[in-house]
Fold this protein.
Amino acid sequence: MEIKLDRQYLKGYIEDKDYTKLLPEIRKAHDQLENKTGKGAEFTGWLDLPQRTKDPSLDELMKLGEEIRANSDCLLSIGIGGSYIGIKASLEFLISDQKLPVEFAGHNLSSGYLYYLLKQLENKDITVVVISKSGTTTEPALAFRIVKKFMEKKYAAKELKKRIICITDAGKGALRNIADKEGYRSFPINNDVGGRFSILTPAGLVPLAIAGLDVKGLIKGARDAQTHCSKMDLDTNIAYQYAAARSLLYRQGKTIEVLSTFYQRLSYVEEWWKQLFGESEGKDGKGIFPTSLSFTTDLHSMGQLIQEGTRNMFETFLLVDQSGKGVVIPKDKENLDNFNCVAGQDLDYVNRQAHKATAKAHYDGGVPNMTITVPRFDAHSLGQLYYFFEKAVAIKGYLLGVNPFNQPGVEAYKKNMFTLLGRK
Ligand code: PA5
C-alpha cells in the first residue's frame, strides 16, 4: 500500500493508550465486516470486489471504449449520487489520461442546464450511458426521457441502439424494462453493492473505460488496498487507523470533519468522499458532518473559521506526492515582490510549504488534523484511495453502531416530491 497517513497533529487529542483501549471494538467491527455478520451485511459485496474483478472483463470494457470512441465526439453520462459523483471524481483526478470528452446529465433538475447542454451537443456524435441502480430515480429518469427523444431525432433506430447503454439492476426497475424492451446494450450493477460504494462496479467502470481511462490500473490499485486493509492490525492498517482516529475525535465532541486539499483536481474526490461518509454515518441521530475545502483558495475565506471558530472540528488533508508539473518560479532582477527566495523552485514546492504551514497553524489553533498522501495522479493511486476510504467508513460505521450501508433518510424528500408530482 503506497498511501500514507500522518497523525502527528493528533498529539494531545489521541494518545497510544486510546487506540489500545479502542482495539476490542475495532476487532469486533472487523469481524462483523469480514464475516458478514454486521448490520447491512447484504450490501458488503464491495469488500472483495477488486480481487473478484478479473482482467479479461476489464479488457472487454477497454475494447468497448475503443469502439465507442471511434464513432463519438462525446459521452453523455446520466446519473446522480453514487451513479455520478465517483465518475466525475475519477475523470477530474485522471484528466490528463482522458481520451473522450464526457458531459453529465440527470444529477440535477435544472431545465436551463439541460437546455444548454443539449444545444451544445446538437452537432456532435454522442453515446449515452444511463446509470441507475434502482432504475427508478427521478432525476436520471427524467433526464433520460428528454435525452432519449433528442437521440431519436438525431439517429435512426439501428444506430440509436448502438449509442445508448443502460447500467442498472439485472432483473428489476424501470430502466431495466426500458433496456430490455428497446434492445439497448446493458450492464448489470452488482446487487450486493450500494450506490456510494459502486465506483468499482460497471456503474463506474463502463463510463471510465469509454472515456479512455486506465480501469485496469484502477482495479489493481484497489486490489492492493484490499490486501493491505483486510489485516486486523492497527499498527499497520491505515484504514483502521483513520477510522479509529475519527471515532476517538467524535467521542471528544469533534462532530465536523473538513477534508482539505491543495489541488483543484481533487475537488470531486472530496464530493465523492462527502457522499460516502455522510450517507454511511449520518443516521440514528449520529454521525460526523463531512465537509470540504479547497486550499489555498479557501484559506483566504474559510481559513478564519477553521483557525479561530467553534472548536468542534477536525481536519484531514489530502495530498498527492508527485504532483509537480515543472512550473518553475523565475528569478527577478528587481525582486520588487521579494520572492527571489523561491526562485528556481516548482510552484508545487510552495504548495507543499502551504500545507505544512496550514497543518501546524490549525493544530496550534485547536484543530487536530491528519494528512493522507497518495503517490501520484494515476489510476493505481486513485483505486487505492477509493478502497481505503470505503474500508475506513465501513469500520467507522460499525464503531458508531449504525448500518453504514443503507440510506433510509434520502427517501423522505422523494416521498414528498412524488406526492407533489402526483406520481404513484
Ligand atoms: O448511495 C446511494 O445509494 C444513492 O446516492 C444513489 O447512488 C442515488 O440515489 C442514485 O441511485 P440510483 O443509482 O438507484 O439511481
Q: What stands out?
A: The chain has a mean pLDDT of 96. Strands lie at 4-6, 74-78, 102-105, 126-132, 164-168, 185-188, 256-261, 289-294, 313-322, 369-376. The longest strand covers residues 313-322.
